[in-house]
């Protein structure tokens, strides 16, 4: 009979993590981006959000490349572009989504 492991939650970790219209990809690997972006978009649709911001950083733009590749494949993305200067400039991407498939 196996015993279920329990883990103590470290002090300072919230019980819930609020979901917003912003996804910060700092700390993630490029190979993780497509799955994370897809899940973020589906969650945003559930929350009835229509405009999102994905922060990928300015750096060498590998994360940005992977973000844009994932966005091009999503049937829910109607547009995406660099954020305005006060929202991250070219270190973030604004994404417009719709629950309707573009060909509908």
Brief overview:
The chain is of the alpha+beta class and 104 residues long.
What features would you describe in this structure?
It is a single chain. This protein is of the alpha+beta class and 104 residues long. It has a single domain, classed as Ribosomal Protein S8, Chain: A, domain 1. It is built from 2 helices and 4 strands; from the N terminus they run βαβαββ. The protein has helices at residues 33-46, 62-73; strands at residues 22-24, 51-55, 77-82, 92-97. A 4-stranded mixed sheet has the order 1-2-4-3, covered by helices on one side. Helix 1 (33-46) links the parallel strand 1 (22-24) and strand 2. Helix 1 (33-46) crosses helix 2 (62-73). The longest helix has 14 residues, at 33-46. The radius of gyration is 16 Å and the shape is globular.
Helix content: 25-40%
In CATH, the topology is named Ribosomal Protein S8, Chain: A, domain 1
CATH class: Alpha Beta
**Corresponding CATH architecture:** 2-Layer Sandwich
Shape: globular
Mean pLDDT: 87
Spell out the helices and strands N to C: EHEHEE
According to DSSP, the number of beta strands is: 4
